[in-house]
Each structure stands twice: as structure tokens, then as C-alpha cells.
Amino acid sequence: MRKPTPGVCPEGYPLIGLSSLTTLTLAVLELTIPALAALALTVFCVYFFRDPPRVVPSKPEAAVAPADGKVILVDLAEDPLSGEERFKISIFMNVFNVHVNRSPVQGRVQSIMYIPGKYLNASLNKASADNERNMLQIDDSDGRAWTLVQIAGLVARRIVCRVEEGDAVGRGQPFGLIKFGSRVDLYLPHGYDPIISKGDKVFAGQTVLARRKRT
Questions:
Q1: What is the pLDDT of residues 30-58, one digit of tens each?
Q2: Given pLDDT bands bounded at 50, 70 and 90, which one contains residue 81?
Q3: What is the structure's pLDDT at 139?
Q4: What is the pLDDT of residues 160-179, one digit of tens each?
Q5: Is 3 a residue whose pLDDT tops 60?
Q6: Which residues are marked as active site?
Q7: Which has the closest alpha carbon to 208: 91, 59, 58, 65?
């Protein structure tokens, strides 16, 4: 597993470095307006690739949000990996959200499947089936399978997945990101119920969005 760098995602270094160099070059050439534009781009790149620390809930029955953004769907749907009907929670990330994706539970990555596709608006329901996406199955300590789907959007053109099959992940641990606007779908295993609603704003690794049923 590739470890993230606190504060800023390493995937942002090339863009931040290039825009910083461009800003410096334009400033030396005394091209004020272009230099200011390049500086604004540099600031935006740092802002977009930020990776702030999160306070991860410790209660074992809690599952946390895999992404920052707005909940656009909470409903029963067919899990694309298992084919079972499960609760599906979809989170839409706009360009201003933190784009780091985090594991909802502690477990182990059992499978990863990348599927090329279209670049429709990620807020549309058909984006789950038509867009470029990366599907992960994470088995928790009780053997329950969690399905996460990273979905590229209208502007997003690159899905980053830092984990590999067999890697252990902690609850709230970063595992990847999607560049410039996107969506993450989470399919809950049986035994868990969603506790959030459509329209709620959530924060990856911090907001509890599902809890294990009491027996």
C-alpha cells in the first residue's frame, strides 16, 4: 500500500510544482497578470489536493463515510459484485470537496475491479452503471463484505486507488481519491442500516452513516 502524505495528497505534487514554477517564471519576467493567474491556480491545486486529518469514531458498530460531499441516494439496490439487494448510499463530491476516499470499516481488501466507461455527470443514477469506475470489496473483521465504487464524473478523469488486494485497512484510513469532481457508492452488508438521509452532508472517515443492527 502506498502511504498518503499528511496535509496534501502526493498525487497533487506534479500539478502544484508545475503551477508554482510557472508562477515564479512569470513573476521574474514581470508579467503581473499572468503571474497572478498562475498563483491562483497554484492555490487552487493545493486546496483541491488537501488531505486534512479526521477524527475517526471508535465504536465498532459504526461505519463511516467513504467520501466528503452530499448524499444523493439512500435506497435498496443490486450490489454490482455480489448481485444481492443491499442498501446503497451514494455520495457526490463537487470540485470544492476534499476528494480523499476512506475505508468505512476496518478490514481487508478482497478484490479490486476497474471498469472503463463514460464520463456522465456523476450525480445521475445511471453513472453507477455507465461511467468509468473502480470497485473494491472490503471484508470486515466479522467477514461481512462491503462494496465501494469510485466513479469518475463529468470533469473527473482519473481514479486513484492506493490499495492492493490483500491489504489491511483501518476504519477511516485513506485508500484513494478521484480527481476533480466525482462520486462514491457504498453498498452496506446485511446486518447494517443507514442512519443518514438524502441531502445530508458527510465527511470521509468522520461522519457515521451506518450502524450494525442490535441482536
A1: 898 989 999 998 988 888 888 888 889 98
A2: very high
A3: 96
A4: 899 999 999 999 999 998 87
A5: no
A6: 182
A7: 65
Return the sign of the alpha-carbon dihedral for residues 110, 116, 122, 125. Answer: negative
pLDDT at 110 over 70: yes
What single string gives the DSSP state of each residue in 5-59? PSEE-GGGHHHHHHHHHHHHHHHHTT-HHHHHHHHHHHHHHHHHTEE--------
Domain 62-212 has CATH 2.70.70: yes
Q: Where are the domains of the chain?
A: 7-51, 62-212
Burial status of residue 147 (CB atoms within 10 A of its CB: 0-12, 13-18, 19 or more): buried
100-102, strands of its sheet edge to edge: 100-102, 174-178, 159-161
Which of 142, 152, 127 shows the shortest CA–CA distance to 61? Answer: 142
Which residue's entry shows cell 460531499?
69
CA–centroid distance for 132 within its chain: 14
